[in-house]
């Protein structure tokens, strides 16, 4: 974590992940504003990494992804250049990956929000609510 918080918590049959940025082995893979320094396609790839990191948090809490009943909600934040309005297409990177992994269980409610800044200038941040068995 970049600050003082838990990467995720389980409450009953639900896991709430903290926002995950596109870190791979501790390295920020996509930095800057989508629509300026980064293309929409790069934002899409960043969202996939964020989703994988959310699943990593779930696995660390559960021991196995087999215990996931369904992905309930995905909230995606896109570090957006002024005038960039394709946040839903960026967060599709996370949503489509979850569909590929979990099928119908990966279909979820979602918000895709454009923001002026994200921590450490990350391109995308994604958080999830996950129902578990």
In short:
With 133 residues, the chain is an alpha+beta fold. The chain has helices at 40-62, 87-102, and strands at 8-11, 14-17, 23-24, 27-28, 68-79, 109-115, 124-132. The radius of gyration is 14 Å and the shape is globular.
Question: What topology emerges from the helices and strands here?
Answer:
Blueprint: E1 8-11, E2 14-17, E3 23-24, E4 27-28, H1 40-62, E5 68-79, H2 87-102, E6 109-115, E7 124-132
Q: Report on the biggest sheet.
A: 5 strands, mixed
Query: So what's the CATH class?
Result: Alpha Beta
Task: Give the low-pLDDT segments.
Answer: none
Q: How many DSSP-defined strands?
A: 7
Distance between the termini: 26 Å
Please indicate the count of domains: 1
Morphology: globular
Q: CATH superfamily name?
A: RutC-like
Total number of helical segments?
2
Strand residue percentage: 25-35%
Average pLDDT taken over every residue = 97
Q: Specify the helix fraction band.
A: 25-40%
Which CATH architecture is right? 2-Layer Sandwich
* Side-by-side strand order of the widest sheet: 1-2-7-5-6
Order of helices and strands: EEEEHEHEE
Helix-strand category: alpha+beta
Q: Fill in the CATH topology.
A: 60s Ribosomal Protein L30, Chain: A
């Amino acid at each position: 974590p970049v600050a003082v918080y838990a990467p995720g918590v389980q409450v009953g049959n639900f896991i709430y992940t903290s926002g995950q940025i596109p870190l791979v082995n501790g390295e920020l893979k996509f930095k800057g504003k989508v629509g300026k320094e980064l293309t929409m396609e790069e934002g899409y790839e960043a969202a996939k990494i964020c989703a994988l990191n959310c699943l990593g948090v779930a696995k660390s809490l559960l021991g196995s992804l087999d215990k996931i009943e369904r992905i309930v909600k995905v909230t995606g934040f896109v570090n957006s250049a002024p005038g960039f309005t394709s946040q839903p297409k960026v967060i599709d990177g996370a949503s489509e990956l979850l569909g590929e992994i979990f099928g119908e269980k990966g279909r979820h409610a979602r918000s895709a929000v454009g923001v002026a800044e994200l921590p450490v200038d990350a391109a995308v941040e994604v958080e999830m609510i996950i129902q578990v068995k």
